[in-house]
Amino acid sequence: MKSLMTLDLNDTCISSIPSSLCCLMDLRVLLISGIEGYGVSLRGKLKKSFDVSLLGKLKKLEILRLSRCNVKKLLAEDVEELTNLKSLDLSLNKKLIIAPNTLSRLPLLEEINLEESFDEWGQIVDKGSNNIGLSEVASLSALTTLYIRIPNIKYLSANNNNIPIFRWENMTRFKVILGNLDWFNIPFEVPFEAEQCALFFGGISIPHHPHSDWARWLIFLLERTKKLLLRECHGLNKYGLSSLIGAGGAGGIRVLNKLQILWVDRCDDVEYVLSTTTNTTTVVDEAEDEGHHHHYHYQIQDEVPQQITTFSSLKMLDLQYLPKLKAICQYGSIPVPSTGGGGGGFFNNLRSLYVSGCSSLISIIPSDLLANLPNLEQLEVRDCSKTTEIFNSNDQEGHHQQATTLILPKLRQLELRHLLSLRTIWDGVVSPSSLLNLEYIYLYNLGMNFVFSLAMAQRLQQLKELQIWNCDNMVQIISLLMEGEDELEKEEAIITCKNTVLFPQLRVLRLINLPNLSMVSKRVLRSSSSSSHDYNFFYWPSLETLTVEKCPNLKRFPMSLQKNAIKLREIQVEKEWFNALEWNDDDDDDQTHHDKLQNLQEKGVKVEFERQWSY
């Protein structure tokens, strides 16, 4: 037993370390964690403080976990013999105090986890003594993993002059909170690999130049950050991340080139996430001395062109409640990025884009950004009160751009909610190379009076599900002519449509609470010669589920079990609407609605009346 090397006491409710543990002189791994919350026992009584003084005798210990153990104090003498310790987990010890000169006695320490634990760096505690300062953490040259919270940036400057940040060269995994964020309110719904290098800012002023006491920390961390959250931060102004400690300058591409996930939330002064206009820029040069120590040199250059960060590794962008945001990128200023030198294209790997509560944003994806999102798979926009369009394929002068490359070729899901000023989803010509793989469209409470132009509808060959809810102004789903299309384009679209099935893969269609919806689309178009052309459009041959509720003006629906809806299996409608419906089954015009119902049921279609939907 004395030769035991690993002891796992996780979830055992152990309240103290037995003295016999000191006999395990060969112990390398000791894991202790409680199953109760933050020092409260199952009987509701506070547990006594967990004494760690005996651990100092385990000189060969390499991995120590004391999570949720109600450890209240860690002193230098408790760990001074643990010179082989490589991993220290003190997470979930809410009242923990760490004395000075404690972590600095652990020269081989590679991992520190203080998640939901100690965060009062350098503060005065009982009897005038101080807590440990951040300089001790910064001096650990073997450190690879760090989970800490720094609630006030003053902790980074107090007694921390000339912090040897370069000694963190082995850092590969970190989760660091700066500011007034707590562990429980940072986002976690991200891929695991991005959690390995995460930096969270909350309620702080962003430095524009990296010569402040604490900006050196940020430069080092930002170079390695994969996930970045900016919440209620100040100082980003109209240049957005281009002004983030010189991120728009010569060192900017290096500083943010590993970023995979970016959240910008409630930063009131942000006008653009990125900008390439002239701005005060800081050049960051890095040098290495004979001792292989890295030093940073800063030079401020005023009114020089910004070098835009390509964000070629970014996979998710989430913009929430930015009241002054005018555009994701300053309109018309985005250069075509070079693909040389190992860099990718602008936003080349972006998979998901979420925009919410940006009350000044007019166009979500304008023309200069539209062709630069080749891997975008999901777009969600909600609660943007001034947004009039989602996509725009016009140039700055309003001329239609003829796309020569694929436009949004991987977009699979589009969700729009509470956009009462929305006029159109797509402004401009929808080229044949657009939206080829869009599968799911969810629309809720929008201001527009139609969903698709005919040209856009023709592109949706892979659409599987379409839901439209609570759109009071909606008159028709497909408009034969929209702003941005001339008569010739309309005629070409109609001619093409005569030989094309619309929505060939659509399986689910839900139309709910659309009080003014009167048609799916017009079927008669008069040309300039006043001659009449009647085009029969063919819709949704794969339709399986149809829901129509609260659509009193929709009297005719293009559905026929003999012609197009041959795979229909379920109908959810109001009985009154069903009885008043004008069917498209020309061969069965004499059938009563009771006969129609019986015919549907005989063909295996389940008809459900009066289903209650949540609005």
What is this structure, in a nutshell?
With 615 residues, the protein is mainly beta. The chain folds into 3 domains: 1-163, Alpha-Beta Horseshoe (Leucine-rich repeat, LRR (right-handed beta-alpha superhelix)); 172-350, no CATH class; 439-615, no CATH class.
Task: Tell me what you see in this structure.
By secondary structure, the protein is mainly beta. It has three domains: 1-163, Leucine-rich repeat, LRR (right-handed beta-alpha superhelix) (Alpha-Beta Horseshoe), CATH 3.80.10.10; 172-350, no CATH class; 439-615, no CATH class. It is built from ten helices and 35 strands. The strands form eight sheets. It has a 20-stranded parallel β-sheet. α4 links the parallel β10 (197-202) and β11 (227-231). The relative contact order is 0.04.
Evaluate the radius of gyration: 31 Å
Number of helices: 10
**Mean pLDDT score, rounded?**
78
Beta strands, count: 35
Helix content: 10-25%
What is the topology?
Layout: E1 6-10, E2 29-33, E3 63-67, E4 73-74, H1 76-79, E5 87-89, E6 97-98, E7 111-113, H2 134-138, E8 145-150, E9 173-179, H3 192-195, E10 197-202, H4 215-222, E11 227-231, H5 252-255, E12 261-265, E13 272-274, E14 278-288, E15 294-305, E16 316-320, E17 327-329, E18 352-356, E19 363-365, H6 367-370, E20 378-382, E21 389-392, E22 413-419, E23 424-427, E24 440-446, E25 452-453, H7 454-459, E26 465-469, E27 478-479, H8 487-497, E28 501-502, E29 508-512, E30 524-526, E31 532-534, E32 538-539, E33 545-549, E34 570-573, H9 575-580, H10 593-602, E35 606-609
Parallel strand pairs: 1-2, 2-3, 3-5, 4-6, 5-7, 7-8, 8-9, 9-10, 10-11, 11-12, 12-16, 13-17, 16-18, 18-20, 19-21, 20-22, 21-23, 22-24, 24-26, 25-27, 26-29, 28-32, 29-33, 33-34, 34-35
Antiparallel strand pairs: 14-15, 30-31
